[in-house]
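Amino acid chain:
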Amino acid sequence: MGTAAFDNSVRIGYARVSTRAQDHQAQLDALAAAHCREVIVETASTRDARPKLASALAMLQAGDTLVIYKPDRVARSMKELLVLLEDQLHGRGIGLHILTGICAGMHRPDGATIADKMLFMVAAMAAEMERDLIRERTLDGLRAAQAQGRRGGRPAAVDDDVLAIARARRERGESVTVIARHLSIGRSTLYRALAPEPGSAPFAAAAPARLGAGPVTGPAGQAPLLTGLSSGQREQAMARFAVLRPHLEDGVPLARAAGEAGVAARTAQRWLARYRACGLAGLARTARADTGRRRVPAELAGLIEGLALRKPRPTVAASLDDLDLLLVMVAKPRMVHRDGIHFQGLRYLARALAAYIREPVTIRYDPRDITEIRVFHRNRFLCRAISPKHAGETITLKDIQAARAAHRRALRGQINERITRITDFLPGPAPDQAPQLPSPVPRRATPRLGTYLEDTR
């Protein structure tokens, strides 16, 4: 075991984290400094299968080197690390380069003496012991925090005071939706907080009401019997139990088991409550007690049906050409200049306009957003031009007109102010002299009707 690099053909790096919340950047920086030709990144726990590690090992050949950041990136224990080193690496003539940790260094398949192997095993045992100590200290800290009444994670959305208020308003007959909106919490969160604990008296009393009356029930107050269900109901119960099985038997989180089965988390929670209350028979869908009866009185239903109005279907453009016809078209063609198209005091640019300089084009625009126009050349759509000065903004035609009117008022006020200042410095006319008025300039008689220039000659 040594620290000097040896001549090899390929150096492949492997970086791994356990969850998506963790970051590979520290490992990637170290592997990049180690001059790896390729770095394989994987997000997986060492408890699960690691397909990218298997592919990295399959890519390596005799004389190559596998580069890792620390030994725990590829193995959980010393035994697993030794099996990987002896069977999958040294047995095939592949080296292992560990960048940091107690086992850091280059481990060659042809240079391992008995002393090197012994030192490597001691270092691996020390690394494993360090990992176990860190885990033990973490668990001790969590247990001490729980003993002091502290729990990890984000604070609960429903505390005792909020739950008391919700229960009081629920007893007054208010709906869960109204209570959740008033308390600014989620409806599903409030449902979970108001649900009674499994096995309690309120839960057992409420379970038959939620499940409905089954065809055959057990002794007084017990759950319906599985033998009283039809074959279709039994198949449905078994299918729902298959969704809950990973959570009940293997300890898989209920949200994860429901997601893998394509079932909503709230539905899985309702199935779990039914299973714990009534067993397998509680997972079957039973008939409602009010099946076939209308909850709304007939008079009210007739009134609602009489007031119902059918809204006309909105007209939608069938194609992009029809959508362009809805835009406002400028009657006067615009000339394409070197700096773009000038319109409403703005300048519009597009790459496609470079080939149409000094060519007349027609533009269409949306009055609600004039920062973008559609350009047509000879009645054919050419491109969309954008004002670079106002890119990412929304400016209406009314905004531009209002800005122009404000600018005109400001200029008119400045001109009037300057005229007033100049008249204060000019000498006034003599009191005995009447002011001389300029002689009127004779105007050229113009015809009332519009005529051409040739007609006036």
Remarks:
- Residues 225-289 form one domain.
- The chain is about 40% helix and 10% strand.
- Residues 54 and 106 are 21 Å apart (CA to CA).
- Residues 1-6, 201-223 have pLDDT under 50 and may be disordered.
